[in-house]
Amino acid sequence: PMPNTSALGGNLAVSATDVWITDFNNDVVWRYHLSDGQFTSVPVSDPADIAVDVAGNAWFTQPGDVNAPGTSNIGRIDAATGAVTTTPTTDGSTTVAPRSITVASDGQVWFTEGTEFTSAPAKIARITPAGSITEFAPDVADGCNFCIITDIAQGPGDILYITSNDPTLMRFNVATQSFEAPVQMPNTSALGGNLAVSATDVWITDFSNDVVWRYHLSVGQFTSFLVTDPGDVAVDVAGNAWFTQPGDVNAPGTSNIGRIDAATGAVTTTPTTDGSTTVAPRSITVASDGQVWFTARFTPQAVGRLNPSNNSVTLFPVTNAGPSGIAASPDGTVWFTQETKGNAASITNAGVITEGKVVKGSGPFGVTVAPNGDPWYTMMAANKVATLQLR
Fold first, then answer.
1. Which pairs from 357-362 meet CB under 8 Å and 24+ separation?
2. Model pTM?
């Protein structure tokens, strides 16, 4: 038995003489002495993973908060003296704050950098399976005038579409590795939010103007749909757009999943309630079976599913997890990030949730699924991009 009944055994590492265990629940690294069967505790804020070197010293990670200097570190516990030292995990450059993420036509994972919460410059970047990152920074000619990038999605013809707080739709050619001329949005106050792309259209939420924009790729024209408080957007195989309306769970009829019929333009909404609980939907995706899945980030927290055949809503409640981004795999698996808990998880149609490794304080946000089925997600607070290797 561990000496503290509230001890939460985290990661561990073993030397010839000791077992080292992180316990972020109690802000402690435990040292179990194999020779006498006794525990020693070393106070460490927010310990996560741990390893030992050939001398038996313990090295640990502290994810912390990249916006709080001195909290994101690599730490060392001297096996002989018990002294604890830490080194900030920074190379002295600006925090990049990875946010939105997608798989491009080149089969690689692409993501955005910079948010409204940091001074990080706006960039998009490509990461290979080996972890090699190449960055591309848009300038004014590309549609970014000191912008903050919001979302990124793959479209037809090797083009990545990118939205920001500037009234332009940016375009990046994956094949030539260069930005193309941006598309000016028809409203100079348009705030490009989240986007989804079909074979024929780019759909963009604009909560600043209570509009969902539809950019027709064939003619290069925009159409607007009046929608109160649009959040995220996704498209189904027929090209119809599905969007979230977070609203106010205490104001009936304001928290919804909406649908825009691609053929008729008709807008319909379904309240995100199962009859007893109402949630504020945040992110949205359409699974391979046509079911519409969404996350509810704030209390009451849940992952939800809407059945388009009868508009029934099923909620799967979670507690203190912070479900945020969500994405569907071609094999039918639905993945979502848990911003508060610090990991990614999958969910079945029956509501069975399987969680990945927790990295406390990492702030998982956007998620996408690679062609091999592995989920990739951004750790906005930890300044990293992560993947779960399933095979």
1. 357/388, 359/48, 359/63, 359/386, 360/24, 360/46, 360/48, 360/63, 361/46, 361/63, 361/64, 361/65, 361/71, 361/72, 362/63, 362/386
2. 0.78
